[in-house]
Specification:
single chain, 440 residues, alpha/beta, three-stranded antiparallel beta sheet, 19 helices, 16 strands, globular
Length: 440
Amino acid sequence: MNRRRIIPMAAVLALATGALAGCSGGEAAAPEVNEDGSTVVDMWVFADVHAAYYEAMAEAWNAENPDRAIDLKITVYPYEEMHNNLQLALNAGEGLPDVVDIEVNKFANFVRGENPPLGDLTEVAEPYVEDIVQARLDLYSKDGSIYAFPTHVGAFVAFYNTELLEGAGIDYTTIETWDDFSAAGQTYNEATGKAFGIAETAVTFVEPLITAQLGGEWMDGDTPQVDSPEAVETISMLQEMKDAGAISTIPGGSPDDEQAYGAINSGDYAAVVYPAWYTSRFVDYMPDLAGKIAIAPAPVPENAAVQTIGGGGTGTAVIGSSPVADIAADWLAFAKLSPEANVAVWEELGFDPVNMSVWEDEAVTHNPDNKFNKYFQTNLFDVLNEVKDGIGHWESFSSPNWPSVDNLFRTVTLNEAFENGVPAQEVLEQAQTDLENELG
């Protein structure tokens, strides 16, 4: 196994080289097999941490399947370049990997039409599906077929800096609803002059959560409905919180940004509502907060339709035309869905596994030597098991036009709402008009 990291310009050159070296004349390429009998599997990813994980899972697969060993060759591209290169290679029919990570907000771009270029993984998933969170499989499915495997659930939870809150006389365990969250934020802001929660402007996460909790969607199939009553109520609620001092914008526009890590680590913010995979960001980038952060269920509105949803994610797919599609699909099911893989997802990455049998294994989830358990005051899986029956699937994420919606909100709409104070109804009506003009 080996790994290459491609910088943006090299990514373009690599694509051109790959296209020239690709199959020609419409002939199917033959599998590449090494002298030791291992099959070469080329994989593209956009995160080094994912590459390390896949390398470990290839080693585990080879140990269990010596007669079907793979030689995993991973190329790590920058995020945008990888997705752009994948689209270019698919259009050309050349220079393609065998397996590829596709970020959830880009995924719909690659399953358009009646015959998506990604391989159907439904059959290889069958041995595991009973234990997998169905909402996450649905996210990467179309017309009853599964086209990619999820990496984590990404259930939204709340992270509270208890040292800061206790100093302001706030008990995080009393925060159950968004009204509670807003009241605590106002109290904290008045007591300290500092920010409590976060109004995001560069990512679209908390807004879908609240809209889903209210029972709404931003898409009706291919058609945007971002000015729906539930969407307007969501943005209005967040604007009211910002005006009251309960939430504030953050450097970088997102909690998942290098500037934001520094601000949160320094105590400039006391609460973060974000997907459970954010545990890894605390451990990796905010060392000063070890022992100070409690994990709790995300706030909900009164009479919530769902308690939480999955946020973010990466779907891993096999290219349907790959000459090694069969063995790649078998390995991928093992690497993403099996219990042993999902134990590794938690222990190595700090993500909430999609195989819920792991959630019940206290030897894994409550291991006192686990670095994530050591860092946080409360146990992530205690919270996840508390909300697991209320994890919903937000259909809008699966819409083929979701990438356009997400892009508009990240670049224009949320900034207008939270930086410029444009009223919710007005900003969402403009977003709806812009999307209708773009999508036709």
